[in-house]
Amino acid sequence: MSLRNLYFARFGFAVVWGALLAVTAKDLGAVAVALLVLYPLVDVAAAVVDLRSSKMKGLYVNIAMSTLAAVGLAIASTSGIPAVLRVFGAWAVVAGLIQLGVALSRRKLGGQWAMIVSGAGSVLAGSSFILGAGKDGASLTNLAGYAVVGGVFFLISALRLSRAARTAKAA
Question: In the predicted model, what is the mean pLDDT of the chain?
Answer without folding.
Answer: 91
